[in-house]
Amino acid sequence: MKLYSLGLSPFAARVRISIYAKGLDVEIVPPPEGGMKSPEYLGLNPMGRVPVLITDEGHPIPESETIVEYLEDRFPSPSLRPASPEDKARARLIARVDEIYVGQPMITLFGQFDPAKRDAAVVDQALLKLDEGLSYVERFMGPGPYALGDKLTTADCQLTPNLFFVGVLGQTFGRGDLLEPHDRLAAYGRMMREEPVLGRVLGEMAEGLKAFRRG
Predict the structure, then answer these.
(1) For residue 119, is it left (φ>0), alpha (ψ between -120 and 50) or beta?
(2) What is the mean pLDDT of the chain?
(3) Residue 85: per-residue pLDDT
(4) For residue 107, what are the domain limits?
(5) How confident is the model at residue 215, as a pLDDT?
(6) Contacts of the segment 31-40: beta carbons below 8 A, 24+ positions apart
(7) In the chain, where do the E strands start and end?
(8) Domain tally, the chain
(9) Angle 120-140/85-97 helices, nearest 10 degrees?
(10) What are the φ/ψ torsions at residue 72 (nearest 5 degrees)?
């Protein structure tokens, strides 16, 4: 199998967490020459985004959630799905709440990176929405240390990459650690940096951010 991935992409990072946690033999490469809008790549994913998984049979699968679910179905052991139906639902809920209520304010804030074009009122409102979204995520998390207990699950695949960017946004807008007001998420943020799989992917994202800033 082959995964088209970029180090900084939270969507590709989500899939890499799954791959590393399951110990899968997957070749991880950047998009082909010409990039994500090249005819070659658009033939694999007409949306022109990462990630795309190429299966052993040569079939392309785009979209991170779909890829993670495919890997769970194709390689059920070790499983990243919780054991009970209730916890399976909670894992999906955490991922969904994070995607909508944390991800959407972050998109707004990414549009405010340039200080010369920044609207302070937009930033303040988006940060309020982001803090609200973090409180929603925290409400549905388990006791830890992972998102739902003592085992890495698909919820962590979604949550960890987004929290990386929460940290970046706090620094960018001079607001410090945005997780600090949320005790459970603050503890999770410390854990994810030390956990082998999550820490590995966070390191890849940090390297991707350095490359992005170098231009």
Answers:
(1) beta
(2) 97
(3) 97
(4) 85-214
(5) 77
(6) 31/4, 31/6, 32/4
(7) 2-4, 27-29, 52-54, 60-62
(8) 2
(9) 170
(10) -65, -40
pLDDT digits (tens, 9 = 90+) for 24-40: 999 999 999 899 999 99
Determine the residue type at 150: D
On whether both 64 and 94 belong to a single domain, the answer is: no
70 and 158 belong to one structural domain: no
Residue in 115, 113, 108 with CA at minimum distance from that of residue 129: 108
> Considering only CA atoms, which of 9, 154, 142 is closest in space to residue 96?
154
Question: What's CA 70's distance to the chain center, in Å?
Answer: 17
Strand ordering across the sheet containing 27-29 = 27-29, 2-4, 52-54, 60-62
* 139 three-state secondary structure: helix
Query: Which helix (H) or strand (E) segment is 135 a member of?
Result: helix 120-140
For 167-198, write each residue's pLDDT tens digit: 999 999 999 999 999 999 999 999 999 999 99
**For 55-63, what is the mean pLDDT?**
97
pLDDT tens readout for residues 120-134: 999 999 999 999 999
DSSP 144-158: SSBTTBSS--HHHHH
Do 93 and 70 sit in the same domain of this protein? no
- pLDDT tens per residue across span 155-164: 999 999 999 9
Handedness of CA 100, 172, 196, 146 (dihedral sign): negative
